[in-house]
Amino acid sequence: MDVKTSLPVIFDATCIYAHNKLELAPLRPVRHRMGKEYVKAYFKYFDVSPPQGDQDDRDALYCLRWDMNCSTLYPGNLRYRKMCVEVMKYLTEKYADGYEGWAKAQGKEVVPIEEPSSTEGAGL
User: Fold this and answer.
1) pLDDT tens-place string over residues 7-38
2) How many angstroms separate the CA atoms of 107 and 122, rounded?
């Protein structure tokens, strides 16, 4: 409750600022029965972001967030952890050289990523 206005304050602990395709991630698993037909319909209205060939891999990466969350919600169910490990293994094997390797393979310029200083964002 806001003490000045007496209005309720709503806090969403799950909000996220991310790529719009992130919204497809929770629908990826078979358990949701939405499947590839739903994704195809989605892309009729929203273009696949470049590089288009990597869309499925990005979707798998985005889905990890939900599967890891399920793994913590149901710690006795190892299925979620196994799914996460399988996806992580697949992605790390496919992109073993990281962004730099991907960029070079695509014939693109590697854009250096600046490391933040240890005090950046700490209010120092």
Assistant:
1) 887 766 666 666 777 877 777 776 777 777 88
2) 37
Looking up tokens 């950046």 gives 120
- Taking alpha carbons only, the member of 47, 44, 26 closest to residue 35 is 26
b (16+ CB within 10 A) / e for 20-47: ebbebbbbbbeeeebeeeebeebeeeee
Cis peptide before 29 (omega within 30 of 0): no
Task: Report the C-alpha gap between 120 and 114 in whole angstroms.
Answer: 12
pTM for this entry: 0.67
